[in-house]
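Can you give me the bound-state structure? Components:
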Amino acid sequence: DAGITQSPRHKVTETGTPVTLRCHQTENHRYMYWYRQDPGHGLRLIHYSYGVKDTDKGEVSDGYSVSRSKTEDFLLTLESATSSQTSVYFCAINGADYNEQFFGPGTRLTVL
Amino acid sequence: DQQVKQNSPSLSVQEGRISILNCDYTNSMFDYFLWYKKYPAEGPTFLISISSIKDKNEDGRFTVFLNKSAKHLSLHIVPSQPGDSAVYFCAATAIQGAQKLVFGQGTRLTINP
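Here's the bound-state model for the whole set.
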């Protein structure tokens, strides 16, 4: 298994509160990604990082920000959570041959 | 605009028979395709991939076929086993650049004994 952990694994929060999800890798890979999974949509890219302090937007980036101060950690922040951000969030890193991505176990976020 | 589509939300197959999962894409820039398997409460697990320079790739019971002219790929599982019951996602990306994956909606495969 790729060395990816996510925390927390489950979180329930209220509308308007800030939330930060953490992705940690032990593989020293350059690229890291945040996706969300929703019924009928598969997984959609939120943001990605191509190095420390280097990040860019994905398909569904509105309402989210990210930070990467160390190679091993990639943080996803919801500045003011909304009910539409209730989802399962997955972090991913590239594999050794670069083209495949390997996913963490996911964080289930519920915004009430 | 859904660039990657899996038009069958679900598929039921008898154990031992062949399972065929289909995926269509619209973006001509995609040149690398992947299949993932997902169990409930777990992250997607990489299964098999194919580059656009090939039309077939095999790995054990899993074979992926790519028809570039039709912008269509399929995953064949032979023989199907009960442990194959899961949701299967196809994904596409362009090799050059940041490897941003675009996923289909998923197909739930159920293998019946």
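A couple of observations. Chain A has a mean pLDDT of 94. The first strand of chain A starts at residue 4 and ends at 7.
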